[in-house]
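Dissemination and training. As part of the outreach component of the grant, students in the summer workshop were shown how a complex can be specified as a set of sequence lines and then modelled as a single object. The example used during the hands-on session is reproduced here so that future cohorts can follow it. Participants entered these lines:
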Amino acid sequence: DADVTQTPRNRITKTGKRIMLECSQTKGHDRMYWYRQDPGLGLRLIYYSFDVKDINKGEISDGYSVSRQAQAKFSLSLESAIPNQTALYFCATSQDRAEQFFGPGTRLTVL
Amino acid sequence: GESVGLHLPTLSVQEGDNSIINCAYSNSASDYFIWYKQESGKGPQFIIDIRSNMDKRQGQRVTVLLNKTVKHLSLQIAATQPGDSAVYFCAENPLLGGSNYKLTFGKGTLLTVNP
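and obtained this result:
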């Protein structure tokens, strides 16, 4: 079984809709992250969380919100989706400053 | 500002040859570096890491070299195989400034292995 899972894997939605992307991990890591990946721009950090009570903005948090429901779960919401939020979204986990482990990604298309 | 970049966006090699993927970084405070491999349709996977107190580290068929003087990182893949075809990212993590959460990623190099 995968250590970091993301649902859904693919999603097509319309402008203005609220979307939630889910991430779960079985690695027992405290730290969780949400990134988006766009062609030619690499991975950019949206939000990160060091534990259940800790939420921090990354470099591109505008238009997004997150919820850390439990150590193992970290969800990303787009309150009102817009076309330029079309991207690949990755969740990752880590234990302190060590390597980050990535989920398989969610491909989101906003029409 | 901080940046992690790659010299070559694409690299094409013959199967069996050695591959070298380069990465430049600009933050002299970075003390931890990682190479990731991303295959099509998958998330990035850890390959190898290196800390700033080292200049070389070897794994299975891979070697990472760190030159702190010129802020340069490279990934060497020996006897490249078709399964090595992927996008390779370097990432850096600066120790100072309270940003120890943050991995800054390069934009990636696409490695294509020709049979």
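The mean pLDDT of chain A is 93. Students were then asked to discuss how this feature might be tested experimentally.
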